[in-house]
Design brief:
Elements (H helix, E strand, L loop, with lengths): L1 H13 L3 E6 L10 E5 L14 H5 L5 E8 L1 H9 L7 E7 L1
Antiparallel strand pairs: 1-3, 2-4, 3-4
């Protein structure tokens, strides 16, 4: 049991969070207009999810930036399920 806990701790410490940000128009935006959690399986191989940022913001001109992030919570879920379930968050920021 002790070896399992040590292996899980090492796996958790070796993994990290990831974030991609796509700035469409520079603007001071601190709060996401929409936050969506996407669910992927087997590390997301061959899977994709789409968010229409123009529809969320009302028009293409109002989109400030789009972010995707794998948070600490998402990494924990991925580690517990050995990569079978790998969630990721997506955020849309409007002007």
């Amino acid at each position: 049991m002790k070896k399992l806990v040590i292996a899980a701790a090492i796996g958790l410490l070796a993994s990290g969070c990831a974030q991609q940000t796509f700035v469409v128009a520079p603007a001071e935006t601190n709060e996401a207009t929409e936050l969506t959690s996407h669910h992927f399986f087997v590390s997301g191989i061959g899977q994709s999810k789409h968010i229409d940022a123009a529809q969320v913001c009302g028009s293409v001109d109002k989109v400030a930036k789009v972010e995707t992030q794998q948070t600490f919570k998402d990494v924990v879920f991925s580690t517990i399920t050995f990569g079978i379930y790998t969630p990721r968050e997506a955020r849309v920021y409007c002007k």
